[in-house]
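Hey forum,

I'm writing up a methods section and want to include a predicted complex as supplementary material. The small molecule is zinc ion. I've pasted the protein sequence and the SMILES. Can someone with a working setup run it? I'll credit the forum in the acknowledgements.
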Amino acid sequence: MVSPYTLYEADLHCHTTASDGLLTPTELVRLVAELGLKGVAITDHDTIQGWDEAEDVGSNYQIQILKGIELNTNWHGEEVHILGYELDGSSSYLKGKLGGLREAREQRMFNILDRLATLGIDISEDEVRQFAQGESIGRPHIAQVLLNRGFVRSIKEGFERYIGRGAPAYVPRYKLTPEEGIELVRKAQGVAVLAHPGIGRLEEGIPAWIEAGLQGIEVQHSEHKPEDVLRYSTLAEQYNLLATGGSDFHGEARKPGVEVGRWGVSLNVVEQIFSLAKQNRLSMIRES
Ligand SMILES: [Zn+2]
Ligand SMILES: [Zn+2]
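Reply by user p_vandermeer:
Happy to help. C-alpha cells for the complex are below, copy them as they are.
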C-alpha cells in the first residue's frame, strides 16, 4: 500500500477492536508494516487487551510495539485524555483500575439505551455488543447500531442527534480527574502523556499535571491545526516534556481521513519513551 503522504516512522496513538477501532491488533500492525512504519503504539480506551496480539505480530514484521492506553478524564467539565505508554501489564493494580473503568462504560451503555428507548429507539444490548469485539464498550458502538438500523446516516450524526454531549440521549460517565489518570499510569510504571491538548485548550492545567507526574505532551495529532502544533511544541520545550504524536487512528469508516502514520514521531521518540519507562521503573524500585 502506498500513501500519498509522507509518513512518520512511528504512530503513537492507535485504537483497535479492543476498544472502538475497526481493525484488530493484527490488521493494524500489518497495515503499519505495509506502510513502512517502524513503530506503533496500541492506545485503546481503558483496556490493554490488544497488546499481546500486537506484540506477536509486531515481532514478525520488526515493528516496535509500544504498550499504551488512553484514559478519558474530567477537568472542570472539560474532557482531558491521558495517554500512558509502556505500563506494566502484569500489575494487579492496573488491572483492577481498568476493570472499574470498563464497568462504568457498561453502566453508561445501559443508561443510554434506556434514554434512546424513551425516544422510541429500541436497541438491545446484544446489538451493541455485536460491534464491540473487545472488552471496552463505548458510544461509537452504539452510534454504529444507530447507523446500521437507519436512524442516522453517519456516526457523526448519531452523536449530534442522539448520544453526543447536549443531545437527548447523552449520559455522562464516571471519569477520573486528570491527576488520577496520570497517577494510574505512573503507579503502573508507565509514561503519562497529555493527549491532543489542542482539542480542549488545556494549557492552564499543565503545571498541576506535571506535578502529578505528567512526562509528555501530544504535539502531532490529526485534529491539531498548524498553530496547535507550534503552540504545544513550544510548551513541551518550555516544560521539558517529551513531544509525542500520533494519528488517533480508528479505521477509515469510523474516523474518515485519519490515516495511520500521517501524524506521529521519529523513532528516537520511541526510544525516549522506552528509556523514560525504564527510569520510572527503577525509581519505583528504589522508593519501595
Ligand atoms: Zn482522545
Ligand atoms: Zn484516541
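Some notes you might quote in the supplement: The mean pLDDT is 95. Residues 99-163 form a domain with the DNA polymerase; domain 1 fold (CATH 1.10.150).
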